[in-house]
Design brief:
By secondary structure, the chain is mostly helical. The chain is 54% helix and 8% strand. It has three domains: 39 residues; 54 residues, no CATH class; 47 residues. It has a two-stranded antiparallel sheet with strand order 1-2.
């Protein structure tokens, strides 16, 4: 049985985050999870609980209190204003911002804007790869490592097939 990282009571929330190849685990008891604003099943309506995953509100205790060293903004303030405080904010809130950017850019971690989206229609394999990546992230978060390994293998196979198709086409992107 896992114990709360803060008080050693039995943990009811287990969060695993993998960022930049580094795995971070957080285990919280009911009281500390509620204090951090984390939804506990049965404690809150399902739509509110799911919105924390869809919108990326699950910030954890440390990140919700963290401030940018350049301008003093918190991630909550940035998210509410929909405006980055200063260039240093990108480093201070890298994980949270990259998640928001991916959501707003349909799975891409870089800005694609309107023109590239119109000019480039994603191939069937690109759409499948994005879907597999989302499923892989969800499986790792849910600690379903066998499923994650299966998804990783399917993603590798798909990526290899796409690379071979590109080589056969002379490396030209799909139009």
């Amino acid at each position: 049985m896992m114990k709360c990282d803060l008080c050693n009571k039995p943990a009811v929330v287990h969060e695993v985050t993998i960022s930049g190849g580094t795995k971070k685990e957080v285990h919280l008891c009911l009281e500390h999870a509620q204090a951090a604003g984390i939804a506990i099943p049965g404690q809150q309506p399902v739509n509110k609980m799911l919105s924390k995953f869809v919108i990326g509100k699950k910030e954890g205790m440390e990140s919700s209190q963290r401030r940018c060293g350049g301008c003093g903004s918190t991630f909550g303030q940035i998210k509410q204003a929909n405006l980055i405080g200063c260039p240093e904010c990108y480093r201070a809130f890298e994980d949270q911002l990259s998640m928001l950017i991916e959501q707003s850019q349909f799975g891409n971690s870089e800005h694609v804007g309107r023109i590239p989206r119109k000019m480039h229609t994603p191939s069937h394999n690109e759409i499948r790869a994005r879907k597999l990546m989302r499923e892989l992230d969800a499986a790792v978060t849910a600690e379903q490592y066998e499923r994650a390994a299966e998804l990783r293998d399917r993603l590798d196979e798909l990526t290899t097939n796409v690379e071979h198709e590109d080589e056969a086409d002379g490396g030209a992107p799909d139009a």
